[in-house]
Design goal:
Helix content: 40-55%
Strand content: under 5%
Strand order of the largest sheet: 3-4-5
Radius of gyration: 25 Å
Oligomer: single chain
Order of helices and strands: HHHHHHHHHHHHHHHEEEEEH
Number of helices: 16
Shape: globular
Structural class: mainly alpha
């Protein structure tokens, strides 16, 4: 509902107000034109340490969004869309009241929304979907002595979970996108699946103490919960390990350990509140996600040919590198730590092929250039800490990202990755660290960046 605003006063007052408005309008238009003229896709826009920035929510009615913002361009993957929600029709064979875990279901549906799932799958959607399955197992076990589901029940419940998520706007293919299926609810080959046997074999007080609160900054480099989960899984799979060594079936023993980890997650979900469990599981998954580059690199032979033996900026080298990176920019959103890994891997590929000069520096390639771009003009790396996609009925989908990502892509001093570590403070000067590690605003001794809410509509029209 719109409200009318009445301005009372003399004609001179109204004229003065109009003068103020016109001044601000002209300044805004001039600033926008200047920004557009100076923008280069692969050029760092900041010559010094990036400052804090905050993009406020822009509330725009969906009715004013054009069908095709740029007629000559395909519809961008991050263009705001609004999900069609409906009441799901369930199988009736899954003995769970889904409304009891509605908040986690809604969060997962938002994180795996139809238009964005493929682009945020690795960093946001799949970690949240996996967490949901763990929490579902734990919730199911509250009314049973079993920590996992039987195969038939697992099939029915998994199908209902997908149905509920899709009815709330989630992508209907998230199971294949995340390589998860109903077997994720069964405990697989783990020999211990009931509560009594679990608590008899595992030091549950130690496990709960280690995992009830997971520090997302410290856990990845100085893990507490992860080794506790592995230790519990080893205790549960002890019998399988013996059989594996006897029969020389090491693969089966490893599978048993991994399956037993799922049982451990289920027990933790049974003991922790849903939100606390979700926070812990997302933090644990982030440690794994940030260590791996999810991007696919094609043959860089054109870049190698153009950039070999170049010690100064070369138009042909930078053009070839820009074209190659442009292909990478069509893949997905990644985190700032993933960008470091990806940039280092690609640099190593070039070094192994004979490109020894730091072409990232020569051609002004930043970390954010390895990320999904909007219209090939603007990138935004996700933070290394877990984030969620947020849906608002007015402004559409949004998420938090690291705007302080105009950091030069790292060029390793050696093609070897042996000494590379995401826990080395010097290599992470531009990434979030704990408050105790340094003064906020001081580069090099540890810098904690605010991750502002960055609307996709802002992303597209910059």
């Amino acid at each position: 509902m719109q409200k009318e605003i009445h301005i009372e006063g003399t004609f001179s007052q109204l004229f003065l107000l109009f003068g103020f408005w016109l001044t601000f309008y002209e300044a805004a238009v001039a600033a926008q034109k200047l920004t557009e003229q100076n923008h280069l896709p692969l050029k760092s826009e900041f010559a010094k340490s990036p400052s804090y920035e905050l993009f406020k929510l822009i509330e725009i009615s969906p009715a004013v969004f054009p069908d095709h913002p740029l007629p000559t361009e395909p519809l961008p993957p991050m263009y705001p869309t609004f999900p069609n929600t409906y009441n799901p029709v369930l199988s009736g064979k899954c003995p769970v009241n889904f409304s009891d875990i509605s908040s986690i279901l809604e969060r997962t549906a938002s994180d795996c929304s139809q238009p964005l799932a493929a682009f945020v799958g690795n960093a946001i959607c799949c970690p949240q979907f996996s967490s949901l399955l763990h929490i579902f197992e734990g919730y199911y076990s509250l009314s049973s002595t079993e920590l996992v589901l039987k195969n038939v029940t697992a099939d029915d419940c998994f199908s209902d979970i997908i149905t509920v998520l899709v009815s709330q706007g989630a992508n209907s293919s998230i199971d294949s996108l995340c390589s998860l299926n109903s077997s994720s609810l069964t405990g697989g080959s783990c020999p211990v699946k009931d509560v009594h046997s679990f608590e008899k074999r595992v030091n549950t007080s130690k496990l709960l103490e280690a995992c009830e609160t997971v520090d997302p900054l410290k856990e990845c480099c100085r893990p507490v919960c992860q080794p506790a989960i592995v230790d519990a899984a080893l205790q549960l799979s002890a019998g399988q390990l013996t059989i594996g060594r006897t029969r020389n079936v090491i693969g089966g023993a490893v599978d048993a350990i991994n399956d037993c980890k799922m049982v451990v997650y289920s027990w933790l979900s049974r003991k922790l509140p849903a939100e606390a469990a979700n926070t812990a599981f997302r933090a644990l998954t982030a440690c794994k996600v940030n260590k791996v580059c999810p991007l696919k690199f094609e043959d860089p032979s054109e870049v190698v040919e153009a950039c070999q033996n170049k010690a100064a900026p070369s138009p042909s080298c930078c053009s070839a590198l820009t074209n190659y990176v442009g292909g990478i920019q069509k893949q997905m959103l990644i985190t700032n730590k993933q960008a470091i890994v990806c940039a280092t891997i690609f640099a190593s590929m070039l070094q192994n092929a004979g490109v020894m000069t730091n072409v990232y520096k020569l051609c002004d390639v930043d970390l954010k250039d390895f990320n999904l771009q909007a219209f090939g003009q603007q990138g935004c790396l996700l933070g290394s800490l877990p984030v969620d996609v947020i849906f608002d009925s007015t402004s559409g989908y949004s998420f938090s990202c690291d705007l302080n990502d105009d950091t030069e892509a790292p060029w390793p001093s050696s093609s070897s990755m042996a000494s590379f570590s995401l826990c080395a403070e010097k290599s992470l000067a531009a990434l979030p660290t704990s408050n105790s590690s340094g003064d906020p605003g001081t580069r090099g001794s540890g810098l904690e960046f605010a991750l502002p809410l960055f609307l996709l509509i802002v992303f597209v029209f910059l």
